[in-house]
Specification:
Largest sheet: 6 strands, antiparallel
Number of helices: 2
Oligomer: single chain
CATH class: Mainly Beta
Order of helices and strands: HHEEEEEEEEE
CATH superfamily: Peptide methionine sulfoxide reductase
Number of strands: 9
Shape: globular
Radius of gyration: 14 Å
Structural class: alpha+beta
CATH topology: Metal Binding Protein, Guanine Nucleotide Exchange Factor, Chain A
Length: about 140
């Protein structure tokens, strides 16, 4: 996973696009069906857009019909952390990058087997790395 990354608000603002900053640092969300990766079916690795930590593999990605990239498990259980989110009058489980704390999305208990989980992740919080030799 690597060392924890801590930066000032000004450093994050300088490195991220306004949309990335809003989603990753202010716990925002992107519009459904608008993100770069919700329909991506290429083999590869999904990394944190803020720190490049490996978060999810394409082998656990599935079409949830929600409009956001969805995965049934992280690449490594230590890659992400969760916490209760009570914003907007709902109780949900927020998912964030364990290495840099970036908000990624939420996890829900309505995913496919074998985990039954649906990690519903914002495309803007991810950077996709195609499988070597498969770039198109």
């Amino acid at each position: 996973m690597g060392e924890k990354i801590e930066k000032t608000d000004a450093e994050w603002r300088a490195e991220l696009s306004p949309e990335q900053y809003h989603v990753c640092r202010e716990k925002g969300t992107e519009r459904p069906f608008a993100g770069a990766y919700y329909a991506n079916k290429e083999p590869g690795v999904y990394r944190c857009a803020c720190c490049s930590a490996e978060l999810f593999g394409s082998d656990t990605k599935f079409d949830s019909g929600t409009g956001w990239p969805s995965f049934w498990q992280p690449a490594d259980e230590q890659a992400v952390a969760t916490e209760e989110d009570r914003a907007y009058g709902m109780v949900r489980t927020e998912v964030h990058c364990r290495r840099c704390g970036a908000h990624l999305g939420h996890v829900f208990p309505d995913g496919p087997r074998p985990t039954g989980l649906r990690y519903c992740i914002n495309s803007v919080s991810l950077a996709f790395e195609p499988e070597p030799g498969r770039e198109e």
